[in-house]
Design goal:
The structure is a single chain. The chain is α/β, with parallel strands linked by helices. It is built from 9 helices and 10 strands. The longest helix is centred in the first third of the chain and has 13 residues. A 10-stranded mixed sheet has the order 1-9-10-8-2-7-3-4-5-6, with helices on both faces.
């Protein structure tokens, strides 16, 4: 992996035609990747929620192939994926993605144990499922054997019998909306109230579209896969378009084997240092 942006003396030295041939890219350690994707440091007022998304897209805009993201991914993408999870307090994911991708609970990883302990985090992030109908397979390991109890974000109008069944299965149901659905801003506040301020969402596209429309997304970590799929696959974010396009700034850009790993962020909120 090599860094393309921000440009440093080493970046320039590694480019062909800038003092010689490019040096061979090497595989970064997990610590190096973690440093490159560190969350913003808390300001004087203490930690506030920071929501980042991690998604992958092909050159022609597909977020999936045959309904799944794995076929357009890469080993380096999976290292970034695992690192982003290891940095987070909670991973927020839509119910449809849980069903389609057969989500499993996050695991503790020895490589990140010291970093998480220093940050005051538990051994692994919690998984928080956004679901209006709670149509979930409660026999999945996500509910039967999580290291950290799985959270379900839903609305106040959720069916009481399904809420009760989820709680009997060991999940913690959190109300984050007045109706059947979830209000994204309220979901962020509810997770922060539980002590989860380093937030990561892995989609899917429908959930990401809702977060974008609500204006609560702080950062997008987007892997650009050098593949073409054509077809009618979803983009990384779906749903109604926003009234005014939201502008994000490039924070960093990494490359390995033709895959580009970009990190875009909004301007830091008041009381926070930049990422």
């Amino acid at each position: 992996m090599r860094r393309l942006f921000p440009v440093t003396d080493q970046t320039v030295a590694d480019l062909p035609g800038e003092g010689g041939a490019a040096t061979e890219a090497r595989e970064w350690s997990l610590d190096e990747i973690a440093d490159a994707y560190a969350y913003p440091e808390p300001g004087p007022g203490g930690p506030v929620p920071w929501l980042r998304a991690n998604m992958v897209s092909t050159l022609d805009g597909a977020a999936q192939h045959d309904g799944r993201s794995q076929p357009i991914s890469h080993a380096a993408d999976m290292r970034v994926f695992g690192t982003l999870r290891a940095l987070a307090d909670v991973v927020v994911v839509g119910a449809e993605t849980v069903r389609r991708e057969q989500y499993r609970p996050a695991r503790a990883r020895a490589e990140f144990a010291a970093r998480r302990e220093a940050a005051g985090q538990g051994a692994a992030p919690a998984i928080a499922i956004v679901s209006a109908g709670l149509d979930l397979d409660l026999s999945l390991p996500l509910f039967t054997s999580p290291l950290v109890p799985t959270l379900i974000l839903t609305g106040a109008a959720a069916a009481p019998d399904r809420v009760a069944a989820a709680e009997r299965a060991g999940a913690r149901v959190v109300t984050a909306g007045d109706g059947a659905g979830v209000d994204p801003a309220r979901a962020v506040r509810a997770l922060a109230a539980l002590g989860h301020t380093r937030l990561l969402t892995e989609g899917g596209p429908r959930l990401l579209g809702q977060l974008v429309a609500a204006g609560v997304l702080d950062e997008l970590c987007l892997t650009l896969s050098p593949m073409l799929t054509a077809g009618g696959a979803q983009r990384i974010a779906g749903g109604p378009e926003v009234a005014v396009p939201q502008r994000f700034a490039l924070v960093s850009l990494l490359e390995e084997d033709g895959f580009l790993f970009s990190r875009y962020g909004r301007a830091p909120r008041a009381g926070q240092k930049g990422a």
